[in-house]
Amino acid sequence: xxxxxxxxxxxxxxxxxxxxxxxxxxxxxxxxxxxxxxxxxxxxxxxxxxxxxxxxxxxxxxxxxxxxxxxxxxxxxxxxxxxxxxxxxxxxxxxxxxxxxxxxxxxxxxxxxxxxxxxxxxxxxxxxxxxxxxxxxxxxxxxxxxxxxxxxxxxxxxxxxxxxxxxxxxxxxxxxxxxxxxxxxxxxxxxxxxxxxxxxxxxxxxxxxxxxxxxxxxxxxxxxxxxxxxxxxxxxxxxxxxxxxxxxxxxx
Length: 252
Hints:
Blueprint: H1 15-33, H2 35-42, H3 46-51, H4 57-60, H5 68-89, H6 91-112, H7 121-134, E1 139-142, E2 146-149, H8 150-165, H9 175-197, H10 215-228, H11 235-251
């Protein structure tokens, strides 16, 4: 997918990733206090969503988990990959993608399975797919020991989930949700590919002199990064930001 490039530098702990982890942790505590109530009304069940139109379950099931290790590994992967994507996209776009993947995973799950489903895994598999597309040459560690490029990592997991989804074994894992999260996430990226390349806000002319770059223009560019991520900048805006850095150095 052309047009994407990795943002190099320190990855911050984004606000949305932080609050998603906190929310899942708090919901898990509520599950420990009242497991039957939480699962009855907020787990994803086909009969409830289709029969009773409890559509909120397509969102709430993401925050429920089947045990501490289920919660821990999901939140670990969310922290590991989500903070990079949030910094690249910006908070608004990251949350949009997360919930599109999660809801898409839920729709896939109730389409092919009647079993109740809980967990953020579907949304997180969407994030993994996005990471593999945006940062294909970056290395990740398979099982914490084996380095592998993210594009191969994602392809491997997609193939495994595809065959696991249609296997006859019942291992208690929502493979359809995992696969659905990846499919909906990739579909969203494909649809938004051209849109993401469009310039956000007014078009600026690249100044001929470094002194022509105003502080107000830089404030607008920095505000744009905060709301839409570094990937939203046009080439002119990237160059303006670069030369503004040189302008600051000259002031010192």
